[in-house]
Structures are given as structure tokens and as C-alpha cells.
Design brief:
The protein has about 300 residues and is an alpha+beta fold. The chain has 2 domains: about 100 residues, Phosphorylase Kinase, domain 1 (2-Layer Sandwich), CATH 3.30.200.20; about 180 residues, Alpha-Beta Complex (Aminoglycoside 3'-phosphotransferase, Chain: A, domain 2). The protein has a 5-stranded antiparallel beta sheet with strand order 1-2-3-5-4, sandwiched between helices. Strands 6-9 form a two-stranded antiparallel sheet. Strands 7-8 form a two-stranded antiparallel ribbon. Strand 4 and strand 5 form a beta hairpin. Helix 5 crosses helix 8. The longest helix is centred in the middle third of the chain and has 18 residues. The radius of gyration is 20 Å and the shape is globular. It starts with 9 loop residues before the first helix and ends with a helix. About 35% of the residues are buried.
């Protein structure tokens, strides 16, 4: 067997999925199967759910097998389908070099892509000039417009009213805020949905030397109202930077934008993580915001102070 570790749940996977030594033989066997040059070494990339490494000028993503108690088969199918959709709609994404399954000790699904080097980080962009921020916000807006298409039958629909999908990530938030967000999600209209990335964050964008923007990691894409996209962009990508937010929303009414942002939070599968990260950044207790009205006022003061 090429992969020698025993997998029996998430803990067993989380202890090994960033190990270059553990995945090196398996990665090279996959490269051999695809007729690609063998890697001399693997380099770690930012951790997520799956094992992702750089090998020469390629990226290999090895999805967690079913024995980890993570059902990543849909993640794999989603990523392939949406990357093809994105390329067909002129959204910059890494080129797919190979994909498939490799049976070893476990069945591993994999995806091989071009490596896209980053010239600068989002953190650097937060310190950039107003004109550079405007260009970046425009890039993100263009990506959103191109991506947010009806894309019928591309992905299976999920029930965004179902709170079970996100409740385990809300621990630590004020119970009343959790109830109000759940009530908001239940009362929304889900008739008009589009393809959304759902995770446009600092980790999933690459800024090139020419300031081009490449979008990566499509495993969390779903069909949802377009405002589902807003929480990740505003909180995790822009870090609530006033200039970036202002450039992104342009002439849109600020009150309507806040409405959309709250709606997006109420249905986002990672709402709890997003809000807890936000409260930590602004140094307030996680349970201190007790209602949607309080959250809205907090955001209004930070995003639109004038």
C-alpha cells in the first residue's frame, strides 16, 4: 500500500492530511497514472478539509475518503462541474490537468491543476492606494456577476431553511441572535437562486503580477440567492475595509445592502464561524450581540460611519 496510515474518522485524517511524507508515494502514483512528471517533493499549501500540495508547477488535491466520515464525493463533483462552468464564463481559474479516482488502501479522488503563483497578498492590498482598492473591488464584482447565473441542473439544491446545516457552527453566539437569524432564514424567498461560490475569502483568491484575480476552491459552491455570497466577501475577504466595501457596492442603497448582508448571514452554512471571527477581530465577546438589530447597528457604524 502506498498510503500506510489507518483512517477511522475525522481525527485520524486531520492528524495526517498535511503530511508530505504520508502522501508523497500516493501523489507520485497518481502523477504516473496521469502521464505526468513525478514530483521530487511536495510542498504544503494552506490547510482546509482535503490534502492539498504543490508539486513542481502543479497542485494536487486529494479528497478525504469516506473512512474519514467526510462525504467528499459531492465536493469532488461540485468542484469539477463549477470549474468547467467558470472557465466557460471567462472566470480566471486554475487549468484542470487531470482528475479521477485511485484505489489504494482507500479510494482516493483527486484533482490536478496548474499552479498559479501569487504576486501579493490580500493583507498588502488593505494597505494599498484607493485606486488599487477600487480595481480589486471591481474585479470581485465582475467575478460575482459572471458566476451568479441560474445554471440549472449544475448542482443539486440544498434546503437553506434547514438549520441543522449550520447550528453546530453557531455555538458561543448569543442564543437570541441565533434564533432571530434562523427566523430570518425561514422567511426568505428561495424561488430565485443562482450559482454562488460561498467562500470568496483571502485563502481562495490569487492576485497575479498584473493584478489579475484567480478564483480557487469551488467545493463549497451551491445554488442560493445571490446575497449568500456577501458574508464571505465582506467579512473574510475585505475584512470590513470601508473603502473596499464602498467600491464593491457602488451606488447601491446602504440600507438595502445591509438588508442583503444580514439575509446572506442568516442562510450561510458558515455563518457562525464568520460572525465569531468578526467579533474576535473587533475585540468584543462572541455573545455580546443579542439581536439582528444590534448586529445591523454594529455593521452600519463600521462600514458606513459617515
Amino acid at each position: 500500500m502506498l498510503f500506510e496510515h489507518t483512517l477511522n474518522g475525522w481525527d485520524s485524517w486531520s492528524s495526517v492530511f498535511q503530511s508530505r511524507e504520508a502522501f508523497f508515494p500516493l501523489a507520485n502514483a497518481i502523477f504516473r497514472k496521469e502521464g505526468l512528471p513525478l514530483a521530487e517533493s511536495l510542498e504544503n499549501l494552506p490547510p482546509g478539509t482535503n490534502a492539498v500540495f504543490q508539486a513542481n508547477e502543479l497542485i494536487i488535491k486529494i479528497y478525504a475518503p469516506i473512512q474519514t466520515n467526510m462525504d467528499t464525493q459531492q465536493d469532488y463533483a461540485t468542484e469539477l462541474a463549477v470549474m468547467e462552468f467558470a472557465m466557460n464564463h471567462n472566470i480566471s481559474t486554475p487549468k484542470i490537468i487531470g482528475h479521477g479516482e485511485f484505489m489504494d488502501k482507500y479510494l482516493f479522488r483527486y484533482l490536478i491543476m496548474d499552479y498559479v503563483p501569487a504576486a501579493s497578498s490580500i493583507q498588502e492590498l488593505l494597505l494599498a492606494s484607493s485606486s488599487e482598492k477600487k480595481d480589486f473591488a471591481d474585479h470581485i464584482k465582475q467575478i460575482s456577476v459572471k458566476l451568479h447565473q441560474p445554471a440549472q441542473n449544475l448542482l443539486p439544491r440544498i434546503d437553506l431553511r434547514n438549520q441543522d446545516n449550520r447550528m453546530n457552527r453557531m455555538d458561543g453566539l448569543n442564543p437570541n441572535l441565533i434564533k432571530e437569524l434562523a427566523r430570518c432564514a425561514e422567511n426568505l424567498d428561495y424561488d430565485e437562486v443562482v450559482l454562488v461560490h460561498g467562500d470568496i475569502t483571502r485563502d481562495n483568491l490569487i492576485i497575479g503580477t498584473d493584478r489579475s484575480v484567480t478564483l480557487i476552491d469551488f467545493a463549497d459552491c451551491i445554488m442560493a440567492p445571490a446575497y449568500y455570497e456577501l458574508p464571505a466577501i465582506i467579512f473574510e475577504l475585505f475584512l470590513c475595509d470601508q473603502e473596499l466595501v464602498a467600491e464593491y457596492i457602488g451606488e447601491e442603497d446602504r440600507e438595502l445592502f445591509l438588508d442583503a448582508l444580514i439575509k446572506g448571514l442568516s442562510i450561510h452554512l458558515f455563518c457562525g464561524f464568520i460572525l465569531k471571527d468578526y467579533f474576535e477581530r473587533i475585540d468584543i465577546p462572541r455573545d455580546s450581540v443579542a439581536s439582528i438589530d444590534e448586529l445591523r447597528l454594529l455593521l452600519q457604524k463600521q462600514l458606513f460611519p459617515h
